[in-house]
Structure formats: structure tokens, C-alpha cells
Write a structure and sequence with these properties.
mainly beta, three-stranded antiparallel β-sheet, 24% strand, rod-shaped
Length: 244
């Protein structure tokens, strides 16, 4: 702009930068700068920096998040909750948690089994929760935690997968083992129907364990005398003839 165009007046022109620039220079070319950060191109809470404010340099500004994530030429994506990914990073019945959802922090999410699955116990009798970092958790369900076996019996679940049911075993102290239910540890053969011994006889099963069979005895009452005893096994047949 030359405010006075008289021939006798010289060096009074001015060079003014465009509206989005700032510097005005009198009597010579102006050095114009354009800081792209003045248009607030970054997101809330982000720091903008334009390393080159030359008007010909565009798109080189950076946006920096408070957690250190830096993006050039546009607003930064400061957060990236991996739990919202598709497909879901955790398996069915599991809860996902991303403790640090910063875009530059990856693979720190955890998968935790829901309460209905992580009900197995350790020898310390405390509930455990399986947590797997950066991948689906392996959930287990020990059927023995519900105490399905009888008093004095030992329970064992060989397959604690939630989809495996009814395969637990109950073991008696005498070695009798039952799968999928409480074991019958005793079997007093003298209580069988029909009675294994005849009239006037007393039955005795010295070892009523369910896995010990055919060891009962038939004894004549005090006022009788055994005159004949017969034994046959598989099936058992005990014949005791008592005479008074």
C-alpha cells in the first residue's frame, strides 16, 4: 500500500501480510509468518506446535496428548480402549479391562472370568480369579467346590472346563470309587433281602465295605449246633444247618 503517490514522496509504501498472517513491514517486503496453531486444530487438552511458520509450510504442526501421544497434521487420538475392539478381545463370560487406554499403550488389557466361572478353590480354601494379560482368560469350574461327595469321601474333578460336568469322582477311605455322584462306601451283606442266613442264625459282616463281598458269616444261636456248612461263591450261597 502506497499512502502518498506523489513523485516527491518515496519509500512510504507498506507490505502487509494477508489476514491470517501478522507482520507489517514499511519500505520493503514483509516477512510473513503463519502459525497453524492459531486456528486451534488440536483437540481439548492437547498441545499444538508448529515447527515451521512459513506460509508455504502447511500441515506440519503437531498435536500432543497429555499422555505423550503425538500426531502430525491433525488432532491426536489420545485414548484407545482396547476392550471396545471388534471382535471383543475377551471370551464369553469374561470382563475386559484396559487400565491405560492411551493410544500408544497397547496389549495391557486384562480378561477376568465372571463370578459364575471363577469359583474354583485352592488348598488355602480361598476363591481364585484367573486373569490373563493380552488375551482371553482360561476359566475353570471345579465341581468339587459344591461338596458333592459324602462325609469322609475324597472328591476329584479331572476336567475343570466349564463345559465338562458330571465327571468328578468320589473315593471312600476303603477305596470304593464312584463317578458323578456320592459313593456308597459300605454294604453290610447281612441287611440283604432275602436274609442270607437261615432261621435261628446270626449274620455277621466283618468288613461291610462296598467292594468287599462274600465275607459274612452265619452262626447258629447258642442252643443249636452246626451240623453242616456249605459255601458257594459267584453268586454267594451260604447254607448253615443248625439243630437244637
Amino acid at each position: 500500500n502506497d499512502p502518498d503517490t506523489k513523485a516527491s514522496v518515496s519509500h512510504d509504501f507498506t507490505c502487509t501480510c494477508d489476514s491470517d498472517m501478522t507482520i507489517v513491514k514499511i519500505d520493503g517486503p514483509a516477512t510473513c509468518t503463519k502459525d497453524e496453531c492459531t486456528t486451534t486444530p488440536c483437540g481439548t487438552g492437547q498441545t499444538c506446535n508448529d515447527p515451521n511458520t512459513s506460509p508455504s509450510s502447511t500441515g506440519d504442526y503437531t498435536c500432543t496428548c497429555a499422555n505423550g501421544v503425538v500426531t502430525t497434521g491433525g488432532a491426536a487420538t489420545c485414548d484407545n480402549d482396547e476392550c471396545t475392539a471388534t471382535p471383543a478381545p475377551c471370551g464369553t463370560g469374561q470382563t475386559c479391562n484396559d487400565p491405560n487406554p492411551a493410544a500408544n499403550v497397547l496389549h495391557d488389557f486384562t480378561c477376568t472370568c465372571d463370578n459364575m466361572l471363577h469359583d474354583f478353590t485352592c488348598t488355602c480354601d480361598s476363591d481364585m480369579t484367573i486373569v490373563k494379560t493380552d488375551g482371553p482368560a482360561t476359566c475353570t469350574k471345579d465341581e468339587c467346590t459344591t461338596t458333592p461327595c459324602g462325609t469322609g469321601q475324597t472328591c476329584n474333578d479331572p476336567n475343570t472346563s466349564p463345559s465338562s460336568t458330571g465327571d468328578y469322582t468320589c473315593t471312600c477311605t476303603n477305596g470304593v470309587v464312584t463317578t458323578g455322584g456320592s459313593a456308597t462306601c459300605t454294604n453290610d451283606e447281612c441287611t440283604a433281602t432275602p436274609a442270607p442266613c437261615g432261621a435261628g442264625q446270626t449274620c455277621n459282616d466283618p468288613n461291610p465295605a462296598a467292594n468287599v463281598l462274600h465275607d459274612f458269616t452265619c452262626t447258629c444261636d447258642n442252643d443249636m449246633t452246626i451240623v453242616k456248612t456249605c459255601f458257594m461263591t459267584s453268586p454267594v450261597l451260604v447254607t448253615v444247618i443248625c439243630l437244637s
